[in-house]
Amino acid sequence: MAQETLNVKGMSCEHCIKAVKSSVGDLSGVSAVDVDLKKGTVFVDYDETKTEHGDIVEAIDDQGYDVVS
Asked: CA-CA distance, 12 to 28, in Å (whole number)?
């Protein structure tokens, strides 16, 4: 299992949390998603043999938020 904490810009409310958790959580191999609005982070626990970093970034981008390095 892999774990990543991504910095994400544009999240500000409960809707943002639900949108990110839903889109990332629907990816194959993702076992946990935690969003921290105050820190602007998304923590993801996933099986890297089923989902790649780029898939997670794309899922977040598709919801209208920006993953920053």
From this structure: 26
- Is 54's pLDDT higher than 90? yes
Provide the number of structural domains found in the chain.
Answer: 1
pTM for the structure as a whole = 0.94
Question: Contact, 38 vs 8, CB < 8 A?
Answer: no
CATH number at residue 35: 3.30.70.100
Q: Taken in order 41, 47, 53, 55, is the CA torsion positive or negative? A: negative
Exposed, middle or buried: residue 45 (CB in 10 Å: 0-12, 13-18, 19+)? middle
